[in-house]
Amino acid sequence: MDIALELEHLSKSYKVGWRKTERTAVVDVSLTVPAGTVFGLLGPNGAGKTTTIKMAVGFLHPDSGSVHIFGQETLDPKVRARIGFLPESPYFYPHLTAGKALDFYARLFGIERAVRRERVKRLLEMVGLSDAVKLPLNKFSKGMLQRFGIAQALVNDPELLIVDEPASGLDPIGQVEMRKLLNSLNEEGKSILLSSHYLSEVENICHEVAVLNKGKVIARGKIEDLLDTGGAYSVMASGLPKSWRPVEPPARQERLNGTVRLTVEKKYVGSLIANVQSSGGLIEDVRKVTKTLEELFVDLVGGDASGG
Amino acid sequence: MAVKAIAGNVIREAIRQKIIYVTVLFALLLFAIEPILPSFKVGLKIQLFQDIALGVAYIAIAILAIALSVNQVPGEIEKRTIYNVLSKPVRRGDFLVGKYLGILAVLTACAALMGIAIFGFSFAYFGRLSYGVFQGMLTATFEAALISAFALLISTFASPTVNVFTCLLFYFVGHVKNDALVAALQGDGAIRLVRIVLKYFLPSLENFNVNEAVARGLVVKPLFLLELLLYAIAFSATFLVVASVTLRRKEI
Ligand SMILES: Nc1ncnc2c1ncn2[C@@H]1O[C@H](COP(=O)(O)OP(=O)(O)O)[C@@H](O)[C@H]1O
Ligand SMILES: [Mg+2]
Q1: Does the beta carbon of A25 lie inside 6 Å of ligand 1?
Q2: Three state DSSP letters for B51-91
Q3: In this structure, what DSSP letter does residue B221 have?
């Protein structure tokens, strides 16, 4: 399979102040984004997501390690013609209107005027900014800037999209729309590297994630696998008398307005259901328990997530 | 196309900058009131008028070159607009050349405006068509172009404030620099180094000052203008090449 982006053993520390005290930001991060997939870089504020992404795009020089995009150097103009980048909290020339600014970014790729005109119109439509074509960017809200940023990153119809916190600054509806948009771009065949500290943001769109904390990858893999609890099931039952207790003790038993939720290991599910039914109870729901990403995070980093 | 787009953007942003209007209008105002200054009461002398007017325009265009150049790169880095430009197929050198050409266009327009004003006032006050004024403005623009390239170079590693002072130093040293100064610096070690830098790496900006000749009504030879042009191009190109190397190494 083709590889869109490959980061190998990247490390980076910043030198801060005139004493040049070192501040470690990223430690030995490796990740591979196969072409056509969505890769999520997940972690709390200050985990090193932006630093990793800036190295991937060539704005920071890694202390060690290497970056390859489509097997080539990231600064190669031929490579840059194939990528789209949305920086964290993007900002644009404030006096330009959305239409003019997008046209400017298209010109940087040497795109013909006729193509530009059509593309600017289509992209602004796609991100819901059609009615703001003539509005200067300094009149844009944070959410609008974020959406303009996505349009700008797509102006060359890139094969690889690198987006740093695409949902930040968006309201809940905007976040859902952003997720849908990224999803449909992926369905068109684009590879995507996205970072987020909203755990829910990556849940439904990433094929694979790496969890960063304090500059290190502390977990990686498919989301389903990371969230797997190792086979616990929850059984919801109603109509059971207050004094009822299961024969086999569950890991956890909670009561909520007459409904009982019982968490058990997979092998006891059958006997528990029989137990409930024989006691006159009704099975409302049986499902596999997965961790929420929040729970995963707490499991992985304990109380030790880097602050921010 | 990227270079053109970036240059166009510089022009568009420059049009919003008050310092351009203030500087040019101040110069125009000085040209207008020059003949009512006391020294002219003795008798209106076109030579004195043009000498002063060209001198003012000469400094005005240098000030504009510095003002327009020092914040191009730091401003884009600080506002983070640079990410959306350099993530595209735009080399750091293209970025700087685009900036440079945009600045040159604005400087040329300002120089032309001031040249036309001096020409017009000369005709209005003294009834003479002094085409030499435009030659004076041309060499002033060459010099401003050179200063601008220097300011862009410094801007790749220094703050605008530091840059302004560096440029002023560059301007003054460049103007007082002459063979006598270089010759006076006899000695070894550090002094020798200073002498070499002065002699070979700092342009003699005074070369661009043809004001006196123009005011006296002398014609500047085309070959001399060509020499000045090549001199300005050689220095500007060197500054920009070094600037693109420093910008490439810079982390943003
Ligand atoms: N320019 C900088 N100078 C010094 N330290 C920095 C700089 N940028 C980021 N850092 C530090 O590097 C670490 C990682 O930051 P960052 O990559 O921005 O994290 P994230 O994007 O995951 O929030 C943090 O500890 C942050 O304080
Ligand atoms: Mg970040």
Answers
A1: yes
A2: HHHHHHHHHHHHHHHHHHHCCHHHHHHHCCCCHHHHCCCCC
A3: P
Q: How many CA atoms lie within 13 A of B37 on its CB side?
A: 13
Residue A5: CB within 6 Å of ligand 1? no
Number of structural domains chain B divides into = 1
Q: With respect to residue A296, please indicate whether it lies within any of the assigned structural domains.
A: no
Q: What is the pLDDT of residues A61-92, one digit of tens each?
A: 999 999 999 999 988 999 999 999 999 999 99
Which domain covers residue B226, as residue numbers?
2-249
Give the mean pLDDT of chain B. 88
pLDDT classification of A255: cutoffs 50, 70, 90? confident
Q: Which of A174, A202, A225 is the last residue of a domain?
A: A225
Average pLDDT (A129-137) is 95
- Contact across the interface for A59 and B5, Cβ inside 8 Å: no
Q: Is the CB of A60 under 6 A from ligand 1?
A: no
| pLDDT value of position A68 | 97
- Judgement on whether residues A148 and A21 belong to the same structural domain of the protein: yes
Structure tokens at B91: 């080399």
Q: Is B245 on the interface with A (CB under 8 A)?
A: no
**Residues A93, B9: C-beta atoms closer than 8 Å:** yes
User: What's the pLDDT at B40?
Assistant: 62
Q: Is B86 on the interface with A (CB under 8 A)?
A: yes
User: How does B172-199 read in b/e, with b if 16+ C-beta sit within 10 Å?
Assistant: ebbbebeeeebeeeeeeeeeeeebeebe
Residue B213 C-beta-side C-alpha neighbours within 13 Å: 15
| Residues A264 and A154 occupy one common structural domain | no
Asked if residue A150 has pLDDT above 80, the reply is yes
CATH of the domain at A33: 3.40.50.300
Q: What are phi and psi of B172, to 5 degrees?
A: -70, -45
Residue of minimum CA distance from atom 18 in ligand 1: A50
Q: DSSP label at A138?
A: G
Q: A173, A198, A225 — which closes off a domain?
A: A225
Confidence of residue A307 (pLDDT cuts 50, 70, 90): very low
Q: Containing domain of residue A213, as a range?
A: 3-225
- What distance in angstroms lies between residue A165's CA and the mean position of ligand 2's atoms? 7
User: Are residue A199 and residue A166 in the same domain, yes or no?
Assistant: yes
- Compute the CA torsion angle A153, A154, A159, A160 (nearest 10 deg): 30
**CB-based contact (8 Å) between B198 and chain A?**
no
The per-residue pLDDT for range B115-126, each reduced to its tens digit, is 999 999 988 888
Mean of per-residue pLDDT scores for chain A: 90
Q: Is residue A241 domain-shared with residue A101, that is, in the same domain?
A: no
Residues A215 and A239 in one domain: no
Q: Is residue A301 part of a domain?
A: no
